[in-house]
Specification:
This protein is α+β, with helices and mostly antiparallel strands. It has one domain. It has five helices and eleven strands, in the order ααααβββββββαββββ. Strands 1-4-5-6-7-9-10-11 form an eight-stranded antiparallel β-barrel.
Length: about 250
């Protein structure tokens, strides 16, 4: 007999597939092809840090086509579409992942194991660290929390405008725990348990008090293309491509 959480996972997955089919079908066929190009390019370069500027240059004209359609056809439920778990596909923000190699000591945050779980009023960047000392490795789960409000809301009078339903965020917590991110648990349940302190974490240093802005250049039930900046450097716009997921598989 299936346990409650497995039934919940099945129901969530079925609902996700149903909404994918209902909303994504509205995208014109020629833009469906553009969307697939974006996914293909990003997927081929998720872990590649050697060509980030070149990939951004390649992606920008394709993303601009999706964005133009999106801001003219912005879904009324954009905020709800965003408030789900996502997995990193590609990004160029140097503040997220890093690799430190001091010879006997190495620290890495794999780019293909980064997730963002958006809830109502807060979100968690969930990732993994690998610490290697004298060829002995230790894996850690990382939970970085940001609290947010929605500013510059979209409405009938803002059709055709970009940077609407903007997330105004502040990072308020950073913690780790031992092992990798559980792959069988729904990510929403996982971060809710972490946030309620039902699962243990060890607080660590982090970007406490750092503020920023995030908005969607495009979002549907499968793909999210976000952009954003730190409020102390608003001229630097970072790009984030994510795929919708349920678990950390």
């Amino acid at each position: 007999m299936l346990s409650d959480w497995k039934w919940g996972l099945i129901v969530t997955s079925v609902a996700l597939l149903a909404t994918v089919n209902s909303w994504a079908a509205e995208l014109p066929p020629e833009l469906q092809a553009v969307k697939q190009q974006i996914i293909t390019i990003a997927s081929a370069n998720t872990t590649n840090t050697e060509n980030i500027p070149a990939v951004r240059q390649q992606l920008e004209p394709l993303i601009a086509q999706l964005e133009a359609w999106f801001i003219a056809n912005r879904p009324e439920n954009e905020v709800e579409l965003t408030q789900v778990p996502w997995k990193n596909l590609w990004y160029d923000d140097p503040d997220i992942a890093f690799a430190i190699d001091l010879g006997i000591l190495k620290l890495e945050q794999p780019r293909d194991r980064i997730f963002q779980v958006v809830e109502d009023g807060y979100y968690y960047n969930v990732s993994e660290f690998v610490i290697t000392l004298f060829d002995q490795s230790l894996k850690l789960q990382n939970y970085l929390k940001g609290e947010y409000t929605i500013i510059d809301p979209a409405g009938p009078e803002t059709v055709g405008q970009s940077r609407r339903n903007v997330i105004a965020l502040e990072f308020v917590f950073n913690g780790v725990w031992f092992g990798t991110v559980p792959r069988s648990l729904p990510l929403s349940w996982l971060v809710q348990a972490v946030d309620a302190k039902l699962l243990p974490t060890i607080p660590i240093f982090g970007p406490y008090g750092v503020t920023g802005r995030l908005w969607n250049r495009y979002v549907d039930d499968d793909l999210r293309i976000g952009a954003g900046f730190n409020t102390d450097a608003p001229e630097t716009i970072d790009l984030y491509l994510l795929r919708r997921v349920v678990t950390a598989e």
